[in-house]
Amino acid sequence: MKQKIVIKVSMPCDKSRSKAMSMAARTAGVISMGITGDSRDQLEVVGEGVDPVCLVGCLRKKLGGAHIVQVEEVKDKKPEEKKEEPKPPVPVYPPPPCYPGPGYYHHAYPSQMVVCDEPSNCAVM
Fold this sequence. Notes:
The chain is an alpha+beta fold.
């Protein structure tokens, strides 16, 4: 279960803030963390299976005063389903008419005649 823990820690300077952030980062199950609050004195930790009591105990040892402000379950936001807009229908055009290409013409050549100038023994010709 994913949970968000807000801990108020006495962090008077940037060095103590960086110590608190590094301690939270080393804790098992931490997904993200950040410094929040008007005076930057709250540590917000988001994680799965994080023990808030153990985390506060470690912060008390290193930094001094620390106490739990809030622990709540974080629910994952479901991405909103995007409604697909209907696409306008694509007009269907008939195929272009098919015209025959240039015809193949068969040229009839006159038959060739062979003319012989040699005398022949044939009288019919």
